[in-house]
Amino acid sequence: MAIQNGLKAPEFTLFSSDKKEVSLTGFAGRKLVVLFFPLAFSSVCTAELCEMRDNISLYTDLDADVVAISVDSPYVLARFKDDQHLPFQLLSDFNKDVSTAYNALHETFSYNMRGVSKRAAFVIDREGVIRYNEVLENPGKIPNFQAVQDALQAIE
């Protein structure tokens, strides 16, 4: 099924960079930004997540939590989070199930790598409904964070 605004977000449970299970249901009653990114330590991914880091107060002020998902292992994500001082959870979709469920998986990425997350942004409301989604085919582009903030602001 295609991901659309107004539909329930696909449930997920993934391991974080802290090696703890994190589920979508754990954010019930909260606004949530879910970012997908291709690979830790790549230049565009680093720029994207550091932009989120540098503006995290905007999301906190909008009463929103942020998680970022990639197919990297929890160990790689722990190092990336530490190196970049990221204040939000990084989740490992190593088996690619969640990226697939959110239609955010490149079948073939650079250098013929298969099964890498697409760059994407989702805003999920307090009831678990998708209010904004942007899935980018071009991994060199960053999501429209102003549109993400506008979607969060529209949620009561």
Automatic annotation (TrEMBL):
Residues 3-156 form the Thioredoxin domain. The active site is at C45 (cysteine sulfenic acid (-soh) intermediate). Keywords: Oxidoreductase, Redox-active center. InterPro entries: AhpC/TSA (IPR000866), Peroxiredoxin_AhpC-typ (IPR024706), Thioredoxin-like_sf (IPR036249), Thioredoxin_domain (IPR013766), Tpx_Peroxidase_subfamily (IPR050455). GO terms for molecular function: antioxidant activity; oxidoreductase activity. Transmembrane segments: none annotated. PANTHER family: THIOL PEROXIDASE. This is Peroxiredoxin.
